Amino acid sequence: MSKADPGTIGQYLLACLYQGGVEHIFGVPGDYVLGFYGLMAKGPVRHIGTTREDTAAFAADGYARCRGMGALAVTYGVGALNTVNAIAGAYAESSPVVVISGAPGVREQRDDPLIHHRFGPFRFQREIFERITCAAVVLDDPVIAFRQVERALAAARQHCKPVYIEIPADQVMAPGYPMPREIPETPSSDDSALAEAVAEAAELLGHAVSPVVLAGVELHRRGLQDALVGLVEQARLPVAATLTGKSVFAERHPAYLGVYEGAMSTENARYLVEQSDLLLMLGVTLNDVDTGIYTARLDPQRIVRAAQNEVVIRHHRYPRVLLADFVAALARSVKARGEAFPAPAAPQPWDFPAPDRPMTIARLVERLDRALAPDMIVVCDVGDCLFAAADLRVHERSEFLASAFYTSMGFAVPAALGAQVARPDHRALILVGDGAFQMTGTELSTHARLGLAPIVVVFDNRGYNTERFILDGAFNDIADWRFHRLGEVFGPMQGYEAPDETAFESALSEALANRSMPSLINVRLPPGDASIAMKRLAGHLQSRVKGEG
């Protein structure tokens, strides 16, 4: 491609993605997208084949959370529609994923034929994706196709949301028409509002006795981790994180208090956050998960809340104040507090493994916490593994990925694939329940095919244990898989069964040493075992189901 030869529509789309940091595209080929796949095979963007289209979308989500943008390519109808749940999750959790869908050719569509994969008017697919993306375009006009690509990708970056790009089969190799490149309008803060918001917040911080920062997921999505550290270390403020924002702040830092999630929090984190005389909420979304099913006890009169486009201090609202500008300006304005960060607590005596002691979730998480290394990314699925994992202390920032708000089962195994492809210098520790693994665990075969070496810990309680705590019944039971034997099917993989602590210790030691293939540890948990947070959550949900609240 050059100024004299700007290339085809398909080439331009791939070039823009590559320039934006997307070096891999996940997906499953199909006839309407094969032309795009053939084009991709000739360029620097590498295709990563997955076992299903929905897992391709989860993988692109994991990639986006580590690289800033991810992409997948699928066929029309059966392929694209299979990604809807995962893309809805990316939309809910603000992950910029690019959905590329093939489609019947423009000339073919004019005759309105009843062709395979069609389910209604051809526009229906775009209209569906309009509901779960921030931009949805069809590249059916070569005159404007380049501009459509630029605008869609710019929207994904600005809003941190998925976008949908449909490319009809006969347009992949159609020449495009270059236009003067648009300079996207960059959002900016209102200078007066920013100055007033920072002045009021700094004054409150100066008078506060026990201020605390509550860090949320928007800080990660906007790339503000360094700015957060600068503010915390300048003002010497303790930091808690929401569950969706977990690991936005390095959890081995002495300022870190733990995860705050209302009644599901540890006693120390909950007390320090709720008794704070000034809570600085940065990038926090007040959803039901982060508030412990709305059990959070936070006084609005003691809160400074900064979101992406506004700051709210008590009854004062400052619109058009960007989160990034507010955090940076506040760090420049505050004075260091006299208190030093507390020294790390002394290590507690450790008796793991205890002979003949059955595995429990509490002991499992405590042992995993001691095994975490700086090069590990923890990717967690939905269920008790998620709530239990809140107590893990990852080493570096942004090393914990989960579908913590949208809570879609089946996220972890494929998302870990995307995360490891995006960050090949890291190793994934995948925490997944047996029910979630049965949904998307086939993607572990792709890990094996690519020579990746994640450690997969299956929380095996023979069913949907979270639902059992809400309302028990045979409908929560599932097939009892022998997960540790899947290497016979999935390719090179080490498998272990761990009913007790001795077996788990042996399996974990071997898995940590194995860097050539996936390792799966099937942890057989006692019936009824659950994390403390899960028991608290289940109590609240039981009341809802029974109509008591």
Automatic annotation (TrEMBL):
Catalytic activity: a 2-oxocarboxylate + H(+) = an aldehyde + CO2
Note accompanying the cofactor annotation: Binds 1 Mg(2+) per subunit.
Known cofactor(s): Mg(2+); a metal cation; thiamine diphosphate
An annotated Gene Ontology molecular function: thiamine pyrophosphate binding
Domain Thiamine pyrophosphate enzyme N-terminal TPP-binding: 8-110
Keywords of this entry: Decarboxylase, Lyase, Magnesium, Metal-binding, Thiamine pyrophosphate
Domain Thiamine pyrophosphate enzyme TPP-binding positions: 381-523
One Gene Ontology term from the biological process aspect of the record: aromatic amino acid family catabolic process to alcohol via Ehrlich pathway
Residue stretches making up the Thiamine pyrophosphate enzyme central domain: 198-321
Signal peptide annotation: none
Residues that, per the record, bind Mg(2+): 434, 461, 463
GO terms for cellular component: cytosol
Tagged with keyword Ligase: no
Enzyme Commission number: 4.1.1.1
Record InterPro entries: DHS-like_NAD/FAD-binding_dom, PDC/IPDC-like, THDP-binding, Thiamin_PyroP_enz_cen_dom, Thiamin_PyroP_enz_TPP-bd_dom, TPP-bd_CS, TPP_enzyme_TPP-bd, TPP_PDC_IPDC
Similarity section: Belongs to the TPP enzyme family.
Name under which the protein is recorded: pyruvate decarboxylase
Species: Methylococcus geothermalis
